[in-house]
Each structure stands twice: as C-alpha cells, then as structure tokens.
Amino acid sequence: MRHRLPPPLRLRSFALLWTSSLANGLAQQMLVVAIGWQVYQIHKNPLDIGLVGLAEFLPLPLLALPAGQLADRAPRRLVVAAGLLLQVGISAGLVVITLSGAHALWPFLAIGATAGGASALTNPAGRSLTPEIVPAELLPGAVALRSVASQIGVVVGPAIGGLVFKFEPVAVYLTAAALFTLAVVTILGVSSQAARAPATALTWKSLVAGVDFIVRTRMLLGAITLDLVAVLLGDSIALAPVFAATILDIGPFGLGVLRAAPSVGALLAGVLLSRRPLRFRAGPTLLGVVAAFGAMMIVFGLSRSLPLSLAALAVSGFADMISMNIRATTVLLVTPHELQGRVSAVEWVFISASNELGAFEAGAVASLIGTVATVVGGGVAMMGFAASWPKLFPPLARMGRLDELEPEAA
User: Fold this and answer.
1) Please, is 71 exposed, middle or buried when counting C-beta atoms within 10 Å of its C-beta (0-12, 13-18, 19+)?
2) Which domains does the chain have, with CATH numbers?
3) N or C terminus: which one in the chain shows less Cβ crowding within 10 Å?
C-alpha cells in the first residue's frame, strides 16, 4: 500500500507534517464558519464579520519579521507546535464565549487578533520546514501535497463545521481543539537534522534580510509580486454572494457551490502535481496560468449559466494551484536554508495582503462600476500584467524547470 503513495508521503517526517497541516486546516475552516455565524447574529451587520477579519490580519505585518527571525533561529517544529497550542487555547476560549451567550462583539475581536498572532508565528516556520525534511528533487511534489491538505480543509472543513454547529455550537470548538491537538502531536513527531542559523546579534539588517533577499533576487520578486497583483486585482470570488443573489439567482446553497468550485479545481491540480511534478519551464508556465486565470474570470463575469460559471471557477482554481506551486517551490529552492524563515514570512505577508485587500478592493470597485464590470475588468488586468511581466522581470520569464533551480547567494 505504501508504495502507491506519492514519494514525499513515503517519508515519515513529511507524512507527519502533512497530517498536521490537514488537521490544522480542517480546524481552521470549522472555526471560520462557526465564528462567522455567531458574529453576524450579534448585530446582524456584515461589517462585524469584516472587523473580525481585520483583527486577524493586523498582527501579521507587525509580527512577520520577528516571526521569520524566530523561524530561522529556533527549531521550526517547536515554533509551529507553539502556534498550534495557542490555537487550542483559542478554541477553549470560544467554548467559554459560546457558553456565556456570545452576545458581545469584542471577545471575537480579541480572539481574531490572537488567531492572527498565532498565524503570524506559525506560518513562516511551517512553510520553511518542508525543505528540511524533503530532498530537493521531491520538493515540488511535497509543496503540491501540502496544498492538497489545505484545499481539503477548505472544501470539507466548512461543511463539517456547519453540520456540527447546527446541532451543538460548543461541539464545533471542542472538535477544533481536538484537531489542533492532533496537529501539535504530529508536528512534534517530525524529525529534522538541519542546522539552525548561527546565533548572531539581532540587528535591523538581520531582521530585514528576507526582504533584502527577495528584492535582490529578481526572479523571486517577479513571481511573488505577480501573485500579489493578480489576486489583488483579478480574483473576484469575494463577489460570489452578489452573483448568487442577483445575477445567477441560485440562493445560499448555490453560493456554497460557487465558493467550493475553485477549491475543487485546485484540489485536482494539487493531486496531479503531487504525482507528476511540473516538467515544463516554470517561468513561461507561471505567466501562462496567470493569464488563463484572468481569462476564466472574464468568462465567470459574463456568464449567466450556473454550469458555465462553475466550470470557469474550477479551471481558475486549477490554474491558481499551478501558479501557487511554482511560486512556493521557487521560494523554497532558491532561498538559502538560513534565510528560509525570514523569506517565507515576507511571502506570507504578500499572500495574506493580496487575499484580504483583494476582497476589499473587489467590493469597493463593484460598488462604483458594477459587479460584472469589476470581475471582467479584473480578468483583463490579470492578462495584461501576465503579458507585461517578462519586460519588467526578464529573469522570471527566462526561468527554466523547477528541478534546475538552486539556492542563490545569501
């Protein structure tokens, strides 16, 4: 049976890391559903949900650089375990809030800020742990498998959370706490012999070393900023409620289907990449899939057919997974081991900012020029950026196969 698994999962430490990621992802998505419902019920104001999201985001830019430094100086599995233990405490706090009636918004804002701090602590170390335990030739497949774990959480977690919440709200948080505990136990079982960075003095230069490395490495800078710009301007899934209610007229269940469609495509791409990593030149492929994502957003924006809309979203998720795999693998392969945590911290800020600010941008522009025009315009912009990026970042356009990449000088 084991020989049928993708090669990275045959490695004990990576299998434990993957299990930890899966448990963490499921728990996170269950919390999103339960917290969102309880917060909305307080004042019946969608702004409250946005405030919780803002509370979760604010700690990230404040803690990213220190968290990256910590990930490069301390055992990364212990840093991840500490962040996951904080999530167990958060789940316990939500149990207390729920039992007390959940009548006030401020406890959820406090929980959101704490969860944001836990995410800022955990992600740089967690994202940097993979190259410590997986050989370079298996790294693209390992990155894809971690994305598969994430997408399983996105697809399955909300459904489980909503079902459990319907019968007993407290049970959602207890289940999440159990999953976070499982994630702690499995991450502690990961074995890594990689050496830590030298215990040099903490200086401003050391703190911003990840930023400096990304700016100097034009291929890496091009890949990360392309993802930021593309998601910020072109990913319009945040407007799915408008399409479900007024354009496609499919109701709340249809909204759930729309939201799940990109993850279904991404999950399929992740499974394929985990078994057969990308064999084409990574630079042109990245530009191509970003353009394809933009084209699918145009189709989605113009569609008045549910099957066509679902197909466009699924293909967009498929393309986005390939883009993410190229970017994430490039970061891990070209970054020296001693800078992995700090570079991953900066990358995580870019990713989170594009997701959070992208949703805000889509809503703001849609209120000015209309939903369809916003989605179609965003898709056109994505295709335009993909076409212009080779001139702005020639090293990215010339980038060859992922298995040919080597660490750059620190």
Assistant:
1) buried
2) 1-191 (1.20.1250.20), 202-410 (1.20.1250.20)
3) N
Give the amino acid at 31.
L
Sign of CA dihedral 293, 298, 260, 84: positive
d(CA 393, CA 73): 32
**What are the start-end ranges of the E strands in 313-410?**
none
Phi then psi for 48, rounded to 5 degrees? Answer: -60, -40
Distance of alpha carbon 366 from alpha carbon 355, whole angstroms: 16
Helices and strands, counts by H and E, the chain: 17, 0
Token digits for 302?
Answer: 């113009």
DSSP structural state of residue 247 = I
Q: Are 26 and 153 in contact (CB under 8 A)?
A: yes
pTM metric for this prediction: 0.81
CA distance 310 to 293: 14
Q: Between these two residues, 50 and 118, which has the higher pLDDT value?
A: 118
246 versus 387: the higher-pLDDT residue is 387
AA letter at 5: L
